[in-house]
Amino acid sequence: MATPRLMEPYLFVEVVAPADCVSAVYTVLARRRGHVTQDAPVPGSPLYTIKAFVPAIDSFGFETDLRTHTQGQAFCLSVFHHWQIVPGDPLDKSIVIKPLEPQPSTHLAREFMIKTRRRKGLSEDVAINKFFDDPMLLELAKQDVMLNYP
Predict the structure, then answer these.
(1) Pairwise CA distance, residues 150 & 91, whole Å
(2) Any idea where the domains of the chain sit in the sequence?
(3) What CDD domains does this protein's entry cite (predicted)?
(4) Of 99, 111, 127, 136, whose Cβ has the fewest other Cβ atoms within 10 Å?
(5) Three-state SS at 58
(6) CB of 18 within 8 A of CB of 73?
(7) Longest dimension (CA), the chain
(8) Would you say domain 7-85 falls under CATH 3.40.50.300?
(9) CA-to-CA distance for 33 and 35, rounded, in angstroms?
(10) Tell me, what DSSP letter sits at residue 25?
(11) Entry pTM
């Protein structure tokens, strides 16, 4: 059986800022798992255009953070661009999520799943058996398929 994966939406972000604010823009993007794809000066002006992808979950408050770090000199435009697989296994029970601590990128899928299930009032563990009806469980038992995820 294949292991499940989570996907998250990514936004395309275009930031226009003065040349002396470019390093601050890079700092804000890096803190939000942003990936810069292009930066170039705007011809005939002192401005730079920075194009990047940012996960939607990390984009909330991005513009405020950007303006704070650039003293209001940068502005941005963001629009949905694509879906991307979240790194890590959401069912990996060996990962312990500690509150108020940033997780390594390989633990993000588990963190997203646990936090979503807590917010919805569900148990943290997902039992795969509850997704099968009785005839399917009997058929899988005949085929000697292991249903307990490690």
Answers:
(1) 8
(2) 7-85, 87-144
(3) eEF2_C_snRNP
(4) 99
(5) helix
(6) yes
(7) 73
(8) no
(9) 7
(10) H
(11) 0.74
